[in-house]
Design a protein that fits this description.
Elements (H helix, E strand, L loop, with lengths): L1 H14 L7 E5 L5 E5 L2 E7 L4 E6 L4 E7 L3 E8 L5 E8 L4 E18 L4 E10 L3 E9 L9 E8 L2 E15 L2 E12 L6 E4 H10 L6 E12 L3 E11 L5 H9 L2 H11 L18 H6 L48 E2 L1
């Protein structure tokens, strides 16, 4: 009997190898699985109860069906996760490279059906501190807000989310059995499909004293708890903001006119000190400064006035004479330089 069980498990695991294109993983017990598929990181975790069929399609697509499960979480995304990503632009004629900071905007589409207890969310973990977080887009019969402590709310991507926290005592985590905090943003109006600007949530959490650590994985996850259901989701990524108009005009056209535009709009011509907001940030410089975020790496070059970084010279990132100025919002650092990505 033992040989039969071992053989059956081995056949199921080999047949479900995640390293090809489309793959299917039928889970009735651990081991659980992580890896890459179609250019995306994936994570599958189950406590072993019930039956789950997990299919990975091309790119960011996956589907999962579950029946009478205990608890499982599965999805595709990125490792490490982040509030923002850097886009590299090289200016060929000036022999310089800069990085544009963009808030990560996660796009997703598909279907999620769970009449019982389950969530569809942007889901991830950080370490130091150990935090499990959810940005819940829709849920089944159980609203996770009902068992958590409400801290506030945030409006993002066309909806309002309640912000909550809970404490998990000696429960499974990415570092084994631990006690840790859960952070939640739960959308008040459910939806399946759209965009999630994760930086808006992370900033709102930070303003409420809910600090994240170093990011581990970040996925668009389907989760079921003591329920049955199905989901078919496609995950993608975009940017909530590009560089500023003046900078990009100056850099991309490589012309003196663009450079002058970048210099005049991206920087100060008279040495005055102004605030240049972080691209895509809906809160503004004074709020970010009030939250104590001035020393964050993604704030460097922005919000000079609110963060008291004025030195009496031009701090807006613009040009001295109009030809080398750009935009601190992520555009050209040289009006006469041609940019390439």
């Amino acid at each position: 009997m033992l040989k039969s069980v071992i053989l059956t498990t081995l056949i199921a695991y080999v047949a479900a190898s995640p390293y090809g294109g489309n793959s299917t993983l039928v889970k009735r017990a651990p081991p659980n699985a992580t890896g890459t598929n179609g250019g995306y990181y994936y994570s599958f975790w189950s406590d072993g109860a019930g039956s789950i069929t997990w299919n990975m399609g091309s790119g960011g697509q996956y589907s999962v069906t579950w029946s009478n499960v205990g608890n499982f979480v599965a999805g595709k995304g990125w490792n490490p996760g982040a509030a923002r990503f850097n886009k590299k632009i090289a200016f060929l004629h000036c022999f310089k490279t800069i990085f544009l900071h963009h808030f990560r905007t996660i796009s997703y589409s598909g279907t999620y059906n769970c009449p019982g207890n389950g969530y569809l969310s942007v889901y991830g973990w950080t370490r130091n501190p150990l935090i499990e977080y959810y940005i819940v887009e829709t849920y089944g019969s159980y609203n996770p807000s009902s068992a958590a402590s409400k801290k506030g709310s945030v409006t993002s991507d066309g909806g309002t989310y309640d912000i909550l926290t809970t404490t998990r005592n000696q429960q499974p985590s990415i570092d084994g059995t631990q006690t840790f905090q859960q952070y939640w943003s739960v959308r008040q109006s459910k939806r399946v499909g759209g965009s999630v600007t994760v930086g808006n949530h992370f900033n709102a959490w930070s303003g409420l004293g809910m600090k994240l650590g170093n990011h581990d994985y970040q996925i668009v996850a389907s989760e079921g708890y003591q329920s049955s259901g199905s989901a078919s989701i496609t995950v993608g990524e975009g940017s909530s903001s590009g560089g500023s108009t003046g900078g990009n005009t100056g850099g991309n056209t490589g012309g003196s006119t663009g450079g002058s535009t970048g210099g005049n709009t991206g920087g100060s011509t008279g040495g005055s000190c102004t605030d240049t907001p972080v691209p895509g940030d809906q809160y503004g410089c004074s709020q970010q400064a009030g939250w104590g975020n001035c020393n964050q790496s993604w704030m460097q070059g922005y919000c000079a006035k609110s963060c008291n970084r004025c030195t009496g010279t031009s701090t807006g990132g613009g040009s001295t004479g109009g030809n080398t100025g750009g935009s601190t919002g992520g555009g050209s650092t040289g009006g006469n330089c041609a940019a390439s990505e």
